[in-house]
Write a structure and sequence with these properties.
The protein is of the alpha+beta class. It is built from two helices and two strands.
Length: 72
């Protein structure tokens, strides 16, 4: 399983972009065991005023459930 993250300069300065990437990596790491294995995941976060862990995790879980990517 592979995971890629793309955070553009529209998200803010390098400190903000790196924080977003760290948060997404952690969310993916914790949920990795429950995801389908034969997929590559590309995470493209929306631009927001502030980024918090709970909001990113909620959106990630919503999309994973919507597209039925939880493993059997």
């Amino acid at each position: 399983m592979k995971m890629g993250i793309c955070v553009s300069k529209k998200h803010g300065n390098s400190v903000t972009r790196n924080r977003v990437k760290r948060l997404l990596r952690e969310i993916f790491r914790l949920k990795e065991d429950n995801l389908k294995q034969n997929y590559s995941y590309v995470l493209l976060p929306k631009v927001a005023e502030s980024y918090d862990y709970r909001a990113l995790e909620r959106d990630f879980l919503y999309l994973v459930k919507k597209h039925k990517l939880f493993g059997e």
